[in-house]
């Protein structure tokens, strides 16, 4: 890997006013949602999925040029072997580069669609999650440059065939959620998210309507659902959280190209509201 961590200093700055509007971060806007809530010690863990292509930007890694894999989805997820795993060299290099940069990267894995990969950042406290995820995306592009592969964060780069899209599942846990009785706090937070489903969808990334179809481990973009250990729900409560009665929840709606500041800030502002909202019945996995 030619990414020279030993001689690099990475500086992260927000552009408040940019007449060219070529890139905008929303750190300052999201920061307002976290003000006054330091005692909540809110943790965010973000799962960044991405898809790797050859330089033609049309052929995902592991795919035949102009065609599709001979095998359907299934063997590629968290896989091993040259016939199943495509892009491990990229995620391994990314992992090392992020560690050297001080990013709280916590894991990587091959994803469901061949050529699709994922890494996780966090848990990070508050708005720091947005800072670290944004910087990690820069490092990802630098690593892909070294290996001369094209990386896209599009949530549905392959629309033909039976293939998963890419998201940025966001795991959330406040101090109260991690304490005894936290499962009730988690449920109330989920009810609040459900009451503002359309507002969240509006800021959860572009092209998400192609991904959130109710198929391929997603919920429909039109309806809010939650469930325990249910990958087909909008928000998932983990089996361990249910068993322990405390922990975290996973918002599965954000797309892979979402702005992490906007997502974390929107979640924070919604779950911190002191409002009464309707109770939502959990969606059994068999119903998804």
Topology:
Elements: H1 27-34, E1 43-53, H2 88-101, E2 105-110, E3 116-125, H3 128-147, E4 150-152, E5 168-173, H4 175-178, H5 182-195, H6 197-202, H7 208-211, E6 226-228, E7 235-237, H8 239-244, E8 249-251, H9 260-271
Parallel strand pairs: 6-7
Antiparallel strand pairs: 1-3, 1-4, 1-5, 2-3, 5-8, 7-8
Structure description:
- The protein is α+β, with helices and mostly antiparallel strands.
- It has helices at residues 27-34, 88-101, 128-147, 175-178, 182-195, 197-202, 208-211, 239-244, 260-271, and strands spanning 43-53, 105-110, 116-125, 150-152, 168-173, 226-228, 235-237, 249-251.
- A hairpin with a 5-residue loop joins strand 2 and strand 3 (116-125).
- 41% of the residues are buried.
- The model has no long low-confidence stretch (mean pLDDT 93).
User: Total helix count?
Assistant: 9
Strand content: 15-25%
- Radius of gyration equals 19 Å
Low-confidence stretches: none
- Helix percent reads 25-40%
Overall form: globular
Mean pLDDT: 93
H-E string = HEHEEHEEHHHHEEHEH
Tally of strands: 8
| Class inferred from helices and paired strands | alpha+beta
Report the biggest beta sheet as strand number plus sense, adding barrel if it closes: 8 strands, mixed
Distance between the termini: 43 Å
């Amino acid at each position: 890997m030619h990414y020279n961590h030993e001689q690099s200093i990475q500086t992260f700055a927000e552009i408040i006013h940019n007449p060219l509007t070529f890139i905008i971060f929303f750190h300052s806007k999201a920061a307002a949602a976290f003000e006054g809530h330091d005692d909540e010690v809110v943790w965010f863990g973000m799962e960044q999925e991405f898809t790797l292509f050859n330089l033609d930007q049309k052929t995902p890694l592991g795919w035949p040029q102009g065609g599709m894999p001979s095998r359907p989805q299934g063997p590629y997820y968290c896989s091993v072997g040259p016939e199943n795993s495509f892009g491990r060299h990229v995620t391994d290099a990314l992992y090392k580069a992020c560690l050297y940069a001080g990013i709280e990267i916590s894991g990587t894995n091959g994803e469901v669609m061949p050529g699709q990969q994922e890494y996780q950042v966090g848990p990070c406290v508050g708005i720091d999650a947005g800072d670290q995820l944004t910087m990690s995306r820069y490092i990802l592009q630098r690593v892909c440059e070294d290996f001369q592969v094209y990386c896209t964060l599009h949530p549905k780069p392959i629309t033909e065939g039976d293939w998963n899209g890419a998201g940025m599942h966001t795991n959330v846990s406040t101090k109260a959620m991690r304490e005894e009785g936290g499962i009730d706090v988690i449920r109330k937070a989920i009810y609040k998210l459900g009451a503002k489903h359309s507002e969240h969808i509006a800021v959860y990334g572009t092209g998400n309507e192609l991904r959130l179809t109710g198929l391929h481990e997603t919920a429909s973009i039109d309806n809010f659902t939650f469930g325990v250990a249910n990958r087909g729900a909008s928000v998932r409560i983990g089996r361990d959280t249910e068993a322990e009665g405390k922990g975290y929840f996973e918002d599965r709606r954000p797309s892979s190209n979402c702005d992490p500041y906007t997502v974390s800030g929107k979640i924070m502002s919604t779950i911190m509201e002191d409002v009464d909202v309707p109770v939502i019945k959990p969606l059994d996995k068999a119903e998804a």
